[in-house]
Amino acid sequence: MEIEKKTIKLCGGLCTASFKADADSDIIVPDTKPDVLKIIGAAATLVIKEKYAQKGKVTLSGVVYYRIIYEGENDTMAARSIEYTAPFSHQHEIACIDDNSEFYALPVSSSVKTTVVNSRKISVHSVFDIKVSSACADEKTLVTSLDDSMPSRSKTIKCTNKVISKEEDIELSEMIDFPNNAADILAVNATVNRNDIKVVNNKIVVKGEAVLKIVYITTDNVIDEFNYNSEFSDVLDVLGIQPEMMTNVVLAVKECNVKLAENMGGEAVPLTVKIVAAAYIDAYESAEETGIYDAYSPEMNIETTYEDIGYLTLLADETKQSNVSDFLETNGAVENIFDTRAVCTVRSQNYNTEGDITIEAVVSASVIYSENGRLNTVKKDIPVTFKFDAQKGLADIQIVPYLSVSGISYAQKGERQIELKIPVMCEVLVFAKSSDKLLSDVSTENAAKIDKTNQPSLIIYFVKEGDTLWNIAKKYNVLVEDIARINGIENENVIMPGDKLIIPKKR
What we know:
The chain contains two helices and 23 strands. The chain is mainly β. It folds into two domains: 3-136 and 161-285 and 313-435, no CATH class; 454-504, Membrane-bound Lytic Murein Transglycosylase D, Chain A.
């Protein structure tokens, strides 16, 4: 007996997880800086340097970069800043992760709480939202073909597999002219926007723009802002990626280092800028696979082995934009607005059987502004909701949202109000989760020949509710076509309860 098998890859469920990780640090004010009177603002950036996958868990390690803006005690300068780095490590349980899993870990957002312990010591507590995404295709061996001696039924499944989840770095280094009257850099905000991607064999071409905003204080004790934009294009090596795959790329700044050269009295001071952006890549491959879901032998008692397989099928890929608008109330009268930041994170995602998908998210916005010649910070969480239509009545689905923020605009409204307008893009992938039992092996090693000597030459069978010609033939170890021929059945799928069938003994 000839048996043909095929090893395929199937993704029974997308391996994604979102969790929070804490980090605590004590920051000592450098001797060159004045005592702390009041914290104006704080930012924490998590850079994951190393990551490991073990059965059921991931281990992350890296560095947290802190920048603290504060008002000094008895200080003539309007504001000061402190830079500080601290080690980071975290371990998290993720059931779908295996030892050999390819995955990335994306720090989505952060919140920072500071406490002034004393005039020379600041305690910082940070919470990071981290998203983990892993490739998830498992190998399955299926029987795809049997010889003519063994009747079989097969089916074709449409599946979508996440075959790539990885991170690739894009480095941007430039020397730019910076105002020569800068006394100290107070805040640095770097973002990267994706303009276009092109997938070729084993490579992704990424085009985008880096946007750099620097808040600084001059030697004349004036707070000012410096803006710089730079377009970039880079080719990333991604083994296995192909143009026909559905590919999603999220760009995020991992590191941003700026260093002022010594002021030599010229019109501008050289500023060294190094930005490391990460491209977080997910690639999905659609395929059709055929497997046998039922088989038997009219001549032998064979041994069949079936395997439960789970798979995903892409139902929808939609993108919507929401223009979030809200007002931030300040403590005092606003003189100037220097820096605006916003990140968007998913809070919940729901599907009902009517086909409605709801993504609840929050935009965490912050603004650095000046009042009475001093810097201050105002923050606000703004809810945003996205609604999508999907197929009705699905038993089990998986939703994968991708959120991005770009092009923040602002305007002062009255003395103590700042209006923010924040475009938020939401791309959602919707997958149906299915399972089938398919034939994985057939053995004739211990198969005994079916003894038909004592069977009647003719059997009359009355069709019952739920019967098929296939099941009847399998029950009596005969061929479907033999039953159809002797009973004059032209369409084997059309039999009715109560029909009388003649079951032949032999073919």
